[in-house]
UniProtKB/TrEMBL annotation:
InterPro entries: AB_hydrolase_fold, Esterase-like, Mycobacterial_A85_antigen. It comes from the Bacteria. This is S-formylglutathione hydrolase FrmB. One of its GO terms (molecular function) is acyltransferase activity, transferring groups other than amino-acyl groups. Gene3D superfamilies: alpha/beta hydrolase (3.40.50.1820).
């Protein structure tokens, strides 16, 4: 089942859209007997899935097979609208738009109230592509007690101020000369990496990290740096580089399929009461 909800977000000071995939009974379920498990009190494992720059909450539905994957593997998928915020709080403008507060606090509270989602750490995951990988990594770093696994596709945490100018230039068509600027935005002194190191040294529970990138992606150097830093700090990092792919939807659909089939510790079934 695919639903698009709209509600007034206190964190964003505006109405916002969230697209939700909820597993529903299928013919395959009937053949295997799984349809008998759809009873009151049934809950689902949950994937919070963040879109990239210049996109919105409909991207994954429009450009990947995420709805089919959610149905097949019995996972609820929550896709918020992050605009071009990098999922960071924006304090400028007439009213503040606190995208980090929204995605880290308000979004899960609202969705867990409205939908039958498991709240257990082992049933909760986050993923994102490009700009969404930045948001997913921040959720993973700050949410070791909430997220079991994070999947970062074609990106990682960045110095968002340093990344904005080259990201805008890339959107206007100048990729090669801006790629180094994006690579330089992943550094040990960036707040997210300082926090990742601090939390690991303090012995806090750490989210498992899966990173994947195409060999022809302009963000590959940045992804390599992020991978090496997180590994150095003691995070469990699984990395896969796929030859022949760039910053493209064919790669992200392939990555999502791998996430559902291999990388995420899924039950592949509903959670009975």
């Amino acid at each position: 089942m695919l639903a698009r909800i709209n509600f007034l977000s206190e964190a964003l000071s505006m109405q916002t859209n969230v697209t939700v995939c909820l597993p529903s009974a299928s013919f395959a379920d009937k053949m295997t007997g799984k349809n008998e498990s759809y009873v009151p009190g049934t809950r689902f494992q949950t994937l919070y899935l963040l879109h990239g720059g210049f996109g919105d909450d409909s991207d994954y539905v429009n450009f990947t097979n995420v709805t089919r994957y959610a149905d097949e593997h019995k996972v609820a998928v929550i896709m918020p609208n992050g605009y071009n915020s990098f999922y960071e709080n924006q304090e400028t403008g007439a009213l503040p738009a606190k995208f980090w507060d929204f995605v880290s606090d308000e979004l899960p509270r609202v969705c867990q109230t409205m939908f039958p989602l498991s709240t257990e750490r082992d049933d909760t995951f986050v993923a994102g592509l490009s700009m969404g990988a930045h948001g997913a990594m921040k959720l993973a770093v700050h949410g070791g007690d909430r997220f079991h696994t994070a999947v970062l596709m074609s990106g990682a945490g960045m110095d968002t101020q340093a990344a904005r100018e080259p990201a805008t230039a890339i959107a206007e068509g100048g990729i090669d000369e801006q790629a180094q600027g994006l690579a330089n935005s992943v550094r040990p002194d960036v707040a997210m990496y300082r926090e990742a190191k601090q939390f690991a040294e303090e012995g806090k529970r750490l989210t498992d990290i899966v990173m994947t990138c195409g060999s022809d992606d302009f963000l590959l150097p940045a992804v390599h740096t992020a991978r090496d830093l997180l590994t150095e700090y003691g995070y469990s990092v699984t990395y896969e580089e796929v030859p022949g792919f760039g910053h493209e939807w064919d790669f992200w659909d392939l990555s999502l399929r791998r996430a559902f089939e291999e990388w995420l510790p899924l039950r592949h079934d509903v959670i009975l009461p």
